[in-house]
TrEMBL record:
The gene is nnrE. It catalyses: (6S)-NADHX + ADP = AMP + phosphate + NADH + H(+); (6S)-NADPHX + ADP = AMP + phosphate + NADPH + H(+); (6R)-NADPHX = (6S)-NADPHX; (6R)-NADHX = (6S)-NADHX. AMP binds at K434, G435, M436, P437, S438, G463. NCBIfam families: yjeF_cterm, yjeF_nterm. This is Bifunctional NAD(P)H-hydrate repair enzyme. PROSITE patterns: YJEF_C_2, YJEF_C_3, YJEF_N.
Amino acid sequence: MSTSPPAPPDGLLPLLTADGMRAADRATMDDWDVPGRVLMETAGRAAVDAIAARYAVEGARVTVLAGRGNNGGDGLVIARVLAARGAHVRCLTLATEAEASADTAANLRLLTRLADASDRVEVVPFDDARQAADAPADLVVDALLGIGASGPLREPVRGLCAWAGRQSAPVVAVDLPSGLDATTGGAADETPRADLTVTFAGVKAGLVLGDGPQVAGEVVVAEMGIPRAEVDRAAAAHTATDAWVAAHLPRRAADAYKYSAGTAVCVVGSGHFTGAAVLSTAAAYRAGAGAVVACTPQSAQATVDAQNVEVMVDAQPETDGGTLAWAALDGVRERAESADAVLVGCGLGRDDETLRLVRALVQEVSAPLVLDADGFSAFAGGADALGERSAPLVLTPHLGELRRLLGDDGFDPEDRIETVRRLAVRWGAVLVLKGMPSVVGTPDGRVVVGPPGRPALATAGTGDVLAGTVAGLLAQGLDPADAAVCALHLGAAAADAWARDHGAGGLVASDLLDRIPRAAAERFPRP
Ligand SMILES: NC(=O)C1=CN([C@@H]2O[C@H](COP(=O)(O)OP(=O)(O)OC[C@H]3O[C@@H](n4cnc5c(N)ncnc54)[C@H](O)[C@@H]3O)[C@@H](O)[C@H]2O)[C@H](O)CC1
Ligand SMILES: [K+]
């Protein structure tokens, strides 16, 4: 039995929230007439397949911690099947027949009866954490809580989680590490870190968001009888596979010449912030733009020119503070009219006159436009003006910039998927909420979670590189949402290439630049 369903043809993998998983479960039982007991049995057996593919089962001493709910029911199935395959299983169960679901109660009866007739299985009705402490184990199975976890952990689950977290034996989490929120990725302090998480039907969003990557260990999707159509229907978001990125990256045509590969006009920089202009324009080239123009204040021209000989620097009128002046509007607008993509924001500064220029460009420029960094200050507290723009728009804020955009307009920073979805639809824009990982929302309500966060990328200037990469991909005609997702993957792959050569620390934003085209060729080769 395969433990991971094949990636869907388009290479986007579904992410399920708790509600989505429940909906898929429910639809499978009600509309497809698959009994819950069959789902539980299938899930448990698929979990054992994934365990057996990684750990020796024959003769192994396994402690299964089974909770009160259906996650515990899965654990009871796993205990029974592991014993049938030769393991010595001690199952500490919180479930009682009186309060468990019918499926869990049935599996409790079955396992208890088996225990009466076999020396391989011991079922220990559980009343406090002390009983777990005296049994050495080669493997611990955490089936205490799945998608039904809510709120701070309560005893005795809390004590058991803490016990599991202290074991030297590998921990296998069933569906989720217990206490990890399936939707947001928030984990309890006592959530035991798993070596392997066998999750059912589809990756739970919480496994790739928030604390999820830190506690989930290797994640394997176990196919357990829920039709793919129900999984895709219930998916709150998707993640892109390397194959998807490779299929969507633009490739330079054999007969390309500099303007056919697209022109990116970058309205960036100021007398005090030339670095952002240098990084963002260089990144646009590295992402494949054929020509890059920097519209930057007069006092920044020499530095940007010197740092990037390939960038055509079009010096513009500036304020006393060395930022773009309102008088630059005509010159920049003229440049933008011949652009295939425009980037506005990196290093612009927050002078009122400059922000007035930013608002005018966002409203008037017809080319696909990326707004980043200081550009958001032009819409602080008046973000809905972004929705008045009719041409494609990509926003690349981090959480602090999003807060500045929204003022005190309530949004839930914990539920990144729904926050990004709602705002992207509201503004009719592609919204990239940068973070670990970044999350991309589209104007039509889709959400794609970016690659797992790389701590090395948490350094000054990587946002300028990301924004420039998006602009460079847009300049080649890529769909705005695809450009955002590809840019995230290129940046992650470039950071990985750095880590391979230099170890995890010490990366600076400019180290990404020449690794972007190499990542495109090596990690995402033309299919
Ligand atoms: N047919 C199906 O539904 C299938 C479900 N699968 C597995 O079932 C879980 C979801 O089961 P559910 O009963 O809805 O919830 P849980 O077992 O995760 O937990 C509910 C259980 O835990 C208690 N609880 C909740 N929060 C806390 C807390 N903070 N501290 C302590 N205890 C807590 C609550 O009182 C309940 O007793 C799913 O993840 C799968 O593993 C399979 O997909 C197979 C088919
Ligand atoms: K669990």
